[in-house]
Amino acid sequence: MKKKKVTFADIAEYTNFSKTTISRYFNNPDSLTLENQEKIAKALKELGYQENKIARVLANGKSEFVGIIVPNLYMHYYSEVMNRILSSYEKYNYKFLVFIGNNKKEIEEKYIHELLAYKIEGLIVLSNTISSKELKSYNIPIVTIERESEYVCSVDTDNYTGSVQATNLLIENNCDILIHINSIFPDNRPTYNRIKGFVDICTEKNLKYELIRDDFGHSYQSTVEKIKDIFNDIDTRYKDEKKGIFLANDTYANIFLNLVVQKYGKLPEYYRIVGFDNSPISSESIIPITTVGQRIDRIAKETMDLLVLQMNEMKKRNPKPLEKPIHKQIKPILIKRDTTD
């Protein structure tokens, strides 16, 4: 036989509370005493109540959905951050709607409007195409990760410290020339400090160095082709010198290492390589790659804590938005592996 659907009236009769009180339990539980909340929760379990999520969204506008916009998933850092955030459901009970922006502003704006139509309660943004000023104009709780964030809350790695760690390690490896490879982007992004840290240390210690910045495109294949060109150029121009290569991320570092090994059958003494992220690809590479470890588990946790803080405030009768954005910075850890001494 078909099981009877449990209604608010059934719950009210079972608990001797009014239907209004039962409604308050679902829509504004803080208005009830803890004792009464526990009585109703027990009754729901005993009655086998199954909540109608759609009806609840229509009733109070709270969807328990969080939107995420990520640039791509071929960069291992983004995929690992996503993995950590999506795994937070058990702790925070929020579900996620994910869109991949591919660095197209008009597409990402369309995605945000789509997410707002789904009544998302908050938004996490890892892409860089939409300014933080525009993001703030949507008037929902937002946390960004590793991008420009003047007007909204953010969680970033201390990229400058990480860059200094990587550069100093290559110096300790007695490299003749230090080379940093990165993409082209504005200097207001947190990751620009990877460039600044490298240049500052090399300049301070009067070292021979080169900064290579280029457009790597928006796909894995275009990135491979560009790094192949850079590798061939470096390998020719600095043939007889010990080269310390500091790459912007582990994806770039793994591609560069593969090109070296394909040509020489091993990692020669005159190449030393450091990546950035500590994404799984760095430890699982054909030769485990030394890297600056972004603490991705901590980044994901701080992001969700900061977003939940804002979302909980918005659920109050008289919410008070943050007076100014909160910016959190996580210290990285240098992880030495086989691509350095």
Brief descriptors of the model:
341 residues, alpha/beta, 6-stranded parallel sheet, 6-stranded mixed sheet, 12 strands, 46% helix, 18% strand
How do the helices and strands line up, and which of them pair or pack?
Elements: H1 8-15, H2 19-27, H3 34-47, H4 53-60, E1 65-70, H5 76-86, H6 89-92, E2 95-100, H7 105-117, E3 122-125, H8 132-136, E4 142-145, E5 153-157, H9 159-172, E6 177-183, H10 192-204, E7 209-214, H11 220-237, E8 243-247, H12 250-264, E9 271-277, H13 280-284, E10 290-293, H14 296-314, E11 327-330, E12 333-335
Parallel strand pairs: 1-2, 1-3, 3-4, 4-5, 5-11, 6-7, 6-8, 8-9, 9-10
Antiparallel strand pairs: 10-12
Overview of the molecule:
By secondary structure, the chain is of the alpha/beta class. It contains 14 helices and 12 strands. The strands form 2 sheets. Strands 2-1-3-4-5-11 form a 6-stranded parallel β-sheet, with helices on both faces. Strands 7-6-8-9-10-12 form a 6-stranded mixed β-sheet, with helices on both faces. The relative contact order is 0.12. The mean pLDDT is 92.
